[in-house]
Amino acid sequence: MLFLPLLTLALLSVAFAEPRVSPLVTHEKRSHTPAGWSRSRRHDSAAVLPLRIGLVQSNMDKLEELLLDVSGPESANYGKHWSAGKVAQTFAPSRETVDTVREWLGDSGIEPSRIKLSGARTWIELNATIEEAERLLNTEYHVYSHFTGKEHVACDSYQLPEHVSKHVDLVLPSIHFDAVIKRDNNPSGHTLRNIGQPGVGLKPKTTGTVSSILNQLEACDQQITLICLRALYGIVYEPVATSKNSYGIVEYTPQAYLQTDLNMFFGNFTPNLVGSSPKMVSIDGGYAQTEYTGFDYNGESDLDLQYAMSLVDPQPITLYQTGDMVEGASFNNFLDAIDGSYCTFEGGDDPNYDSIYPDPYGGGYEGPEDCGTATPAYVISTSYGYNEADLSPAYAARQCAEYAKLGLMGTTVLYSSGDDGVAGNGDLCLNSDGSQTANGTMFNPSFPGTCPYVTSVGATQVNPGASVAEPESACMQVIYSGGGFSNYFAMPSYQAAAVEHYLTAYPPPYTASQYNATGKSRGFPDVAANGANYVVAIDGEFELVFGTSASSPVTGSILTLVNDARLAAGKSPIGFINPTIYSPAFTGAFHDITTGSNPGCGTIGFNATAGWDPVTGLGTPDFPQLVARWLALP
Ligand SMILES: *[C@@H]1O[C@H](CO)[C@@H](O)[C@H](O)[C@H]1NC(C)=O
Ligand SMILES: *[C@@H]1O[C@H](CO)[C@@H](O)[C@H](O)[C@H]1NC(C)=O
Ligand SMILES: *[C@@H]1O[C@H](CO)[C@@H](O)[C@H](O)[C@H]1NC(C)=O
Ligand SMILES: *[C@@H]1O[C@H](CO)[C@@H](O)[C@H](O)[C@H]1NC(C)=O
Predict the structure, then answer these.
(1) 206-631: CATH topology
(2) Ligand 2 neighbour 432 (Cβ under 6 A)
(3) Which end of the chain is more exposed for a tag (fewer CB within 10 A), N or C?
(4) Are strands 521-524 and 527-530 parallel, antiparallel or unpaired?
(5) What residue stretches are annotated with the Peptidase S53 domain (predicted)?
């Protein structure tokens, strides 16, 4: 008799273990082989692949709603930001997700003992033979060769049963392309991870050395210095809550500042800061290298730090110096460091795009990857970027969700919107197959600027011959303000009225084969600030610098001063600002920019117009207005 219940249970569990069957659906598909690679052969079917299945997180459908709940100016929970623990708990993949994927693998003949769940429950891993992987994913794996000789395993597309597909973000390796090319072998600059490497991604531009520094309000059309920015945006404020406040600037090695350059700038413009340095937070072996110098190595960091440190003085600045000299780093490496729940090789990174630490190839940083070791500052400005098309939609979406989580925790995340107008970094445009070339005809939006959970910052200029009292235009000297409409992200509710107004009042004379004309996609940038003619000390000389690279840290400085005022009044930091700045309560808190455009891809781009536009967003900051309105919020 003792055996009977057990037997019954065993029979029952057999009955329930009938494999679930649902039709196969294509989960991810790549349209073209990335430049530099060619398919060389079918992979050996007995070889073993480390297969990693990224699980869909819970409550992602409520992400925007949850973020609006703490960021919407009319919400009862405005400013009640979440703890990191609450964020991790809310979005961890559900039991049902984990079980569905496990059952599917079990039903497909994979022994449970071969399946491993990562610590943060976000990945399921197993070592599968090529034959098993091809059967699981209904695909074919090929070996691809790079012109440098490097080989990579990939497929063109793969399928999952429908009931499994909805629980999976992505499977690796699959269509995602290997960027693990040592940069020394890769003069073409196609490495995606080394976002700080000269020639990769977004960089400020210079027209050369300044012969004499004008530093006059009358000359802001020729040279931007601190007095110009203070006059343009009404920045008159002495920080008082510096011990409570924080402002972080992110740099990617080998980009680095030189202390001698900071001192040279401060000596001329902010004498009390001579000898001051940012608070260095080293991430994954990052340090302010001095081995390589020149505009291409020091321009970005010198610009960001000289202006940010001066504008928020005496507020100390945190410098998140990310990545070593060998492997470099990606945005995910930075995000891992400031949010432990996003972190680890197993918890969100894609070895095809992100650097792996300790350096598996030797010669680089040998320490453990930084995971939750750095505290996120209240405002974080980054002047680096990719083109959306450099990344797969799934990869971009996963990273974008992380920016929403930082918003839930009270951090304002700013990214420069790009310097090539409607074209992408490097002045590349899209072709219909998704490839990017100089002669492409489709606009090429930048990332993370198109992520609806970051604040994207475009560039303006003081018009030639004009004074600081006159309205600025979209920047049309040396660089053009990045802007347009995402191909990956839907329009968030907070900007719907503003963007619909633009599309209705000024219908762009372009077709759906030039830009995402659905009227339902995320428009960027959100705001703008001056990006032309900055006087920056670089390698012992004053140079004239252009770019949204300047606009982002200047906007970050202004928002940091707003945080100071709120913190001094016992209020929370402003956190994710987009729902607030697009709300009626903030109408008129930005200087609307209505002239200029953002040319690219053989067109004049979009026009700056009255109201929001995909060139300068809502406009440039009016600091006294912003402080007053943010102090009026709870
Ligand atoms: C896969 O194999 C590698 C090398 O043998 C091993 O280190 C790793 O733990 C294995 N992974 C799983 C999920 O079994
Ligand atoms: C566009 O440029 C690519 C190389 O970047 C070239 O292969 C292609 O032929 C060009 N197409 C046209 C229409 O000129
Ligand atoms: C346009 O944007 C929408 C919303 O993000 C997206 O679903 C659609 O695929 C995009 N269209 C193109 C052509 O990229
Ligand atoms: C920009 O404005 C000019 C002049 O009003 C107009 O001819 C052009 O069609 C507009 N372009 C766009 C993209 O809206």
Answers:
(1) Rossmann fold (3.40.50)
(2) no
(3) N
(4) unpaired
(5) 223-633
